[in-house]
């Protein structure tokens, strides 16, 4: 096993798709950060690179990288100041860095899209020479490991294949023979039958191996083609190891799964839908995307773990109640552990409490200021752990209230963004567009405009992908197969993260706004389709509508002939695919919640209109297609375009004008055809107030841990716990204990509704304090009510029964501890 120097671990990146904890090893040895400084990097290359498409993860080159590219589209939550792009040699321009910071010299050519805290780094965080010394030792050690699985000839998906079968839940090693390698080079497919979550190492012999064909997962007669949907996460531990190779060529007909460990080789992706794993190579050349699927930070491997000497602190978090009601007490337990091999010093656990909970207390040595809890726990020996607790009150959520005002609604302001796309002959480009801040992407497409006269047709421009990659981000892949230059446009439509301010004077915070929200996870399906017309449907959960329809094709052998939803069932999105030969397609949609967030005890509904238009496409289509417009009503904006086309008619996109869409259709037959064009229109205003809510509200609380010692893996330093607060008739509650100060009894109250409340404190039926207080919707107030004559002895009682009777909602009674 490689001996990894501490200096080489400074820039270790969190393995975002990899598991943080491996299963108990029934075979091999459990090891952390086995790739050393390369841990978590999607592309980690000792020398030069030549790239023609995006990388979903982090990228580090010890040499030159002359081509700009889009980077880090899947790094949601990546720390702003952490390195996600490193080029130690010369670099190009046009790097679109979605998250994190960059080391390049000179400091130029990078567009930082990750917000505050991102920017250029002053020093190279990676010692590439040391890192590759370690990677070569690891590759050699794994290459000499004993085989634990079987290699046989078989059939996968109807194709002749080399079938690798392993049964161990922790570690499977396959040592291919020269004959196996030659069979793969000739185009034989690969069948992989191993347990999900296990480390799987495929050792490939030879100095210049080629891997062709396609990969399949399964067993017996049941095989599924490898794709993001079945590889990411479950097969993060899949590694192709080339210990003797000086040149590796991948020539695949679809996605290539697994990490490529070839530290002595020039790796070339000659063809592939994309790669799904890390690239650890001497040099790297690819015009295809590298998708994020990093090797787990802890895994079972065939050789001992890295040498001791580095601490590695991690944190876990849990909540005492998963589904509290408003006013209930919840205790979070935060456990910091040192999973490294040396003592961690200056360990601090930090918990920044989110909105939706209110601080009550915390265990020693924690302190709280402005909702941030800090716990300085000191040193942790290797393997040691310590726990602290933070107690909070779950803020109430109104489940009932008065009728709404007939004019209480909010404006909504969708908007669009676009970019011109120029394509040289044979060029393939990946375009990324983003909404502002936390806004929600509802649609994104290409529109093909023109091919230079006499050098090809508009049909020579192929759209291979158009899909949302994060809540407000869209990515498209387009290729020009004409012999001349082509022009196109990429555009997106965005929904605001929040409504505008309320339309009427409510008497309680006229400037309030409501948040729009969508499910973070997409609904997706990935399938292989034969020649002809096929359909696929996606369904969103109740209370949502489908938006941001997207697709990704493994080749240009298919086109999208339909992308459709209906007014009657807006939760379902149906895609229609026309294919000339077999193709793998991934379809996706995001689910937008139709109810806004609850503010001041009420919500609003988003209102939609679906405009459907039937058009006739002439048999003699113009060279650049015929244009058809679909227009929203005066009170709406177009947020998602839909269509269904007959065979022989192709869509070359549409142009968003918010009120309208201009569709461009091309009829490849000589006969007029009828097509259906639709536009989902979001009304300019929400519904009126809906007092209360029936929807639970998830509250995500994230804790972090840091240390003053060198930390081997900064990517495992945070953990979250989610509670789901249930709505009810209770709209107000108590926070913590009561306190006697002079002639007043004070206590903290939290409310989901504005208004007033009567507070009455008693001990054994005697009134100790009585008064009226104002409540702050969505916030905490300190109520001070006057003590009665008998109540002046309250401080000696220790406990008091307090009745809170709000003007909106149910009366709440609770026994509180009394302090001075």
UniProtKB/TrEMBL annotation:
<dbReference type="InterPro" id="IPR001434">
    <property type="entry name" value="OmcB-like_DUF11"/>
</dbReference>
<keyword id="KW-0732">Signal</keyword>
<feature type="domain" description="DUF11">
    <location>
        <begin position="312"/>
        <end position="395"/>
    </location>
</feature>
<dbReference type="InterPro" id="IPR047589">
    <property type="entry name" value="DUF11_rpt"/>
</dbReference>
<feature type="signal peptide">
    <location>
        <begin position="1"/>
        <end position="22"/>
    </location>
</feature>
<dbReference type="Pfam" id="PF20597">
    <property type="entry name" value="pAdhesive_15"/>
</dbReference>
<dbReference type="Pfam" id="PF01345">
    <property type="entry name" value="DUF11"/>
</dbReference>
<dbReference type="InterPro" id="IPR051172">
    <property type="entry name" value="Chlamydia_OmcB"/>
</dbReference>
<protein>
    <submittedName>
        <fullName>Choice-of-anchor A family protein</fullName>
    </submittedName>
</protein>
<dbReference type="InterPro" id="IPR026588">
    <property type="entry name" value="Choice_anch_A"/>
</dbReference>
<feature type="domain" description="Choice-of-anchor A">
    <location>
        <begin position="35"/>
        <end position="292"/>
    </location>
</feature>
């Amino acid at each position: 096993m490689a001996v990894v120097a501490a200096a080489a671990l400074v820039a270790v990146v969190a393995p975002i798709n990899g598991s943080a904890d491996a299963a108990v090893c029934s075979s091999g040895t459990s090891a952390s950060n086995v790739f050393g400084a390369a841990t978590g990097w999607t592309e980690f290359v000792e020398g030069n690179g030549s790239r023609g498409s995006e990388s979903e993860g982090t990228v580090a080159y010890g040499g030159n990288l002359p081509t700009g590219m889009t980077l880090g589209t899947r790094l949601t939550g990546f720390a702003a100041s952490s390195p996600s792009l490193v080029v130690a040699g010369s670099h190009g321009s046009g790097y679109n860095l979605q998250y994190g910071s960059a080391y390049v010299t000179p400091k130029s050519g990078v567009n930082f899209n990750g917000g505050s805290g991102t920017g250029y780094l002053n020093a190279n965080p990676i010692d590439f020479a040391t890192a590759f010394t370690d990677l070569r030792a690891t590759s050699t050690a794994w290459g000499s490991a004993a085989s634990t699985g079987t290699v046989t000839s078989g059939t996968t998906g109807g194709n002749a294949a080399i079938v690798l079968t392993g049964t161990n839940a922790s570690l499977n090693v396959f040592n291919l023979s020269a004959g196996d390698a030659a069979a793969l080079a000739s185009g034989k497919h690969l069948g992989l039958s191993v347990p999900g979550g296990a480390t799987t190492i495929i050792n490939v012999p030879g100095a210049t191996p080629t891997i062709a064909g396609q990969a399949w997962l399964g067993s017996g007669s049941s095989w599924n083609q490898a794709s993001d949907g079945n590889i990411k996460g479950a097969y993060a531990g899949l590694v192709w190891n080339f210990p003797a190779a000086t040149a590796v060529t991948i020539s695949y007909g679809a996605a290539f799964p697994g990490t490529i460990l070839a530290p002595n080789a020039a790796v070339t992706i000659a063809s592939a839908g994309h790669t799904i794993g890390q690239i650890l190579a001497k040099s790297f050349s690819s015009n295809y995307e590298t998708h994020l699927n990093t090797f787990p930070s802890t895994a079972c491997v065939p050789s001992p773990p890295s040498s001791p000497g580095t601490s590695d602190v991690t944190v876990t978090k849990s909540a005492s109640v998963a589904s509290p009601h408003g006013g209930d007490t919840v205790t979070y337990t935060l456990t910091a552990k040192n999973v490294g091999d040396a003592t961690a010093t200056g360990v601090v656990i930090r918990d920044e409490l989110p909105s939706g909970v209110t601080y009550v207390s915390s265990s020693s040595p924690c302190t709280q200021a402005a909702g941030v809890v800090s716990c300085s726990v000191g040193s942790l020996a290797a393997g040691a752990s310590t726990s602290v607790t933070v107690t909070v009150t779950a803020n109430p959520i109104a489940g009932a209230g008065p009728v709404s005002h007939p004019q209480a609604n909010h404006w909504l302001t969708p908007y669009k963004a676009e970019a011109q796309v120029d394509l040289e002959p044979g060029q393939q480009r990946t375009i990324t567009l983003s909404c502002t801040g936390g806004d929600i992407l509802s649609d994104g497409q290409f529109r093909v405009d023109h091919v230079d006269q006499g050098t090809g047709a508009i049909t020579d421009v192929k759209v291979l992908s158009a899909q949302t990659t994060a809540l407000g981000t869209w990515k498209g892949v387009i290729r020009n197969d004409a012999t001349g230059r082509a022009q196109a446009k990429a555009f997106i439509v965005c929904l605001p993260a929040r409504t505008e301010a309320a339309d009427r004077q409510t008497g309680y915070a006229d400037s309030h706004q409501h948040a729009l929200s969508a499910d973070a996870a997409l609904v997706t399906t990935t399938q292989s389709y034969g020649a002809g017309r096929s359909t696929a449907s996606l369904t969103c959960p109740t209370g949502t509508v489908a938006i941001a329809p997207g697709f990704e094709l493994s080749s240009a052998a298919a086109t999208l002939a339909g992308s459709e939803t209906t007014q009657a069932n807006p939760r379902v999105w149906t895609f229609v695919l026309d294919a000339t030969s077999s193709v793998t397609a991934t379809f996706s949609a995001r689910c937008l919640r139709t109810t806004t967030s609850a503010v001041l005890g009420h919500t609003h509904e988003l209102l939609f209109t679906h405009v459907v238009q039937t058009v006739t496409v002439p048999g003699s289509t113009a060279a650049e297609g015929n244009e058809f417009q679909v227009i929203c009503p005066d009170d709406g904006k177009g947020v998602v375009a839909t269509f269904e086309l007959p065979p022989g008619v192709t869509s070359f996109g549409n142009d968003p004008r918010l009120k309208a869409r201009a569709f461009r259709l091309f009829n490849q037959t000589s006969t007029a055809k009828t097509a259906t064009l639709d536009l989902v229109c979001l009304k300019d205003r929400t519904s009126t107030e809906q007092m209360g809510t029936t929807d639970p509200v998830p509250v995500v609380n994230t804790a972090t841990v840091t240390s003053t010692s060198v930390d081997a893996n900064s990517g495992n330093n945070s953990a979250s716990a989610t509670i789901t607060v249930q709505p009810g008739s209770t709209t107000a509650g108590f926070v913590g204990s009561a306190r006697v100060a002079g002639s007043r009894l004070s206590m903290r109250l939290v409310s989901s509704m504005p208004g007033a409340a009567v507070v009455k404190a008693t001990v054994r039926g005697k009134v100790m304090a009585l008064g009226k207080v104002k409540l702050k919707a969505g916030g905490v107030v300190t109520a001070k009510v006057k003590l009665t004559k008998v109540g002046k002895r309250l401080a000696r009682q220790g406990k008091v029964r307090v009745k809170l009777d709000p003007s909106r909602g149910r009366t709440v009674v609770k026994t509180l501890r009394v302090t001075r």
